[in-house]
Amino acid sequence: MASLVDIIPRHPHETSALQDAIYRSLQDARSLYGPHRKSFDGLTQHKRARDEITALPAKRHRLSSGSASDPSQPKSGIPKVKRWDEGLEMYRRGALRLTRTPGRATSTNVVSLSDVVKPEALEAFASHSFIVEDDFLAAHLPLQGPHSLRGVPIYDSRPIESDPMFHFAAQQGLLPDINLDKRTKLTKAQHAQAVPVVRELHRQFGPPGLRPLYPWASGCAHSKFFLLFYPGFLLLVITSCNTMQIDMDLSDNHWYIHAFPEIPPGKKRKAKTTFEHDLLAHMLDLDWPEEVISRVRDKYDFRSAEGRVHLVASVPGTKRATDGESSYGMLRLNELARQIIPKSVKPDIAMEFCAGSVSSLPPEWIDQTDKLLRGRDLSRAVSVTKPGVPEPPVALSNLPEWSIVFPTKATVAACSPDVITAASNIGCCLNNKEWPKTPDEVRSMFFDYASKDPGRLFHMKFYQWKDSRNKNPSAPPLMVYLGSHNLSKAALGEVSRLKSGAGDVRIRCSNFELGVVIRGEDIVDFLEPGSSWDDIVPYVRPSRPYNNRTGDSPWNSPAWVSQE
User: Fold this and answer.
1) Which SUPFAM superfamilies does the record cross-reference, listed alphabetically (predicted)?
2) Catalytic residues
3) Less Cβ crowding at N or C end of the chain, within 10 Å?
């Protein structure tokens, strides 16, 4: 077995050889990680990982020596952090935005990553994403140029399997119990073995300031959010985008952005808000270290979000509704529906979903999910079950009339090549084999996707609770959800009750997820002046229902098809 001592170079020629090895591993990791990684090569215009690794020692030496001829440089050679007060004013009340796709270049209520990440003003950066395109993210951070000398802490949280350095470590024999050929998910023991090795490789060869974080999950560590620490405020971004160009530049996605002012030192703070509590709870659930948590706890004023924005999280494992913890997944959405939606409207709620991943949709799960999302009491929404005794089947005629907006195969096939590449991010578990066998009552729920930026696809997860009695097409929904939760058990959870009464309700999720719920009547407050609530809906409504007679069926990415 190799060790870190064996591969850490002691001579410039050895350094070059190791850099080449890392580069080859980075390229191999793209193919090992499936169609998501393969799609990066043709999309990014940034420098290759090899260029970054090869140039890093020279850059560090050159930058550390400063530039006597540059009058903007302080004598020490390290520039001062700049202020970005416009960001605080722009996002002080919170904002909902769509990705600035090519056809929305001059539209309102759109955003790109460079609009919210200002490297010259960053004091610290923390993010979690399921997939990270490293060169795309690095191009937005203070990792090059004079501001790289400030050593800005960069907390990069992701599944360790998506880090190319993990693949390099495994290929170099540093992780003897991990076989990449099997492509199975790491066990907790394997994860614990890999984390210190991969972190040490980043310390030796990664950019200064990088602190990689690797939460373990039984399913996916699927949350997508950024914490941007600027002088005087914290900027929070929760999105449906993976940190990659096809999501953040080329696909329809949502962004919730909110600036929270710093509490001046010595000033007595108000009571902690629910919003701050829930944000810190999710950071702790991801097993983020205290050095990150302490940057947020009791440091910022979150009152502008309280009562207006409600966080919704999921965590892997089984949780009881009476554990005194924040509720998760569907239980959290049930709680919010009970708070926000009037009782008189609940029987008439029409649910509309647009999610990048759609599960196999068993009728029993549809029935239970619908009851919970409508805000029914848990004792009525969740039937009592006995271990080993299956629940009675749900009559298909009693299923709700959901609307699931998802592109057909024909819609995807008609897109341009770059958009079709982006479609590798989405899929439906009602795949080629299952769709013909799917009950008509479920197939009738599907509607085709047509972007307002024609020809675009999406990676969003967007739910609407609508009052079916209100026939005004311009009326806002009762509430909306946007974030990372796909329409699946793994994300939203599966709820059970082992005894009568609500006290034994439990939810089992597989993924880490994070999103927000906002009341429909409040949506316009998060948009630019003169906007309509419908401006955050990136697709044309009403959507066209699938035509089963002409063979309409859901698009399936190669990743889904390969699992048939």
Assistant:
1) Phospholipase D/nuclease
2) 222, 459
3) N
